[in-house]
């Protein structure tokens, strides 16, 4: 029986043998990949320098089959100029579109597919191209918290597909995608309104939530929107300026009654039930404030009227005094003028000369 030392030697030999075999396999794999890459590069470089359409197309199709999308696109771009006006053009254009799609250049892919469907409407692959155009617009739709122009474009493009191919077996999938994107727009509008509410901009929040309901009448967010509208109207009523307070209290109470009737069992109805007593108490308190304010206004008006009457009498008295003074001055001036005139018309006394004897 071999000793422990011999067994250890035997084990390490076997282990080193296996490690060596695995290392060799890895090396061979790496070398084969390197050789393949070198071969592809050589083929690509040669095709890019060539003017032979067959060489270029062959290389482009090889790059396409090996999923080297950027190389395939560069070659297809060259090939398209050489096969213009031939039957090969359609294949080049369609593969260009798919290469852009697989390379995740969705905007470019959508443009290529859309152009193909419009240029070759009678081609058996026109429907496929139109569908892929719509799908690429869908892929280009951004997250809900970003600009949704791309989402709106995607919905329009998918609706265009349904209009062109209403009986397509892909129509069901397109409708599901439209619903998904519509919800994204809906949720975007909902989140915008919710931001107004968080910032305490309750007037803007109320208007924005109502717009969501108008723009998306079938929204599944309706119960939540009802709740936010109720809370917004409550805050507006409780913290309103004097001139709008009565109107806003009535608006909030009216909405609370609406929710109790039309949103039973929801958080919105619960909120309405909790806030209605507070609104009624605020209505009563404000009625007293309004009555006191009106009385105060009446007193101020009476006081102002009395002050205006006194001021008016004072003005009239002053005016009368001024007129009297003017009259006196006028009479004095008339008397003086008469005296001056009389003095001017009286002849001077005769001169008496002494008489000589």
TrEMBL record:
<keyword id="KW-0998">Cell outer membrane</keyword>
<keyword id="KW-0472">Membrane</keyword>
<dbReference type="Pfam" id="PF13525">
    <property type="entry name" value="YfiO"/>
</dbReference>
<feature type="region of interest" description="Disordered">
    <location>
        <begin position="290"/>
        <end position="357"/>
    </location>
</feature>
<dbReference type="InterPro" id="IPR011990">
    <property type="entry name" value="TPR-like_helical_dom_sf"/>
</dbReference>
<feature type="domain" description="Outer membrane lipoprotein BamD-like">
    <location>
        <begin position="55"/>
        <end position="240"/>
    </location>
</feature>
<feature type="compositionally biased region" description="Basic and acidic residues">
    <location>
        <begin position="290"/>
        <end position="311"/>
    </location>
</feature>
<dbReference type="InterPro" id="IPR017689">
    <property type="entry name" value="BamD"/>
</dbReference>
<protein>
    <submittedName>
        <fullName>Beta-barrel assembly machine subunit BamD</fullName>
    </submittedName>
</protein>
<keyword id="KW-0732">Signal</keyword>
<dbReference type="InterPro" id="IPR039565">
    <property type="entry name" value="BamD-like"/>
</dbReference>
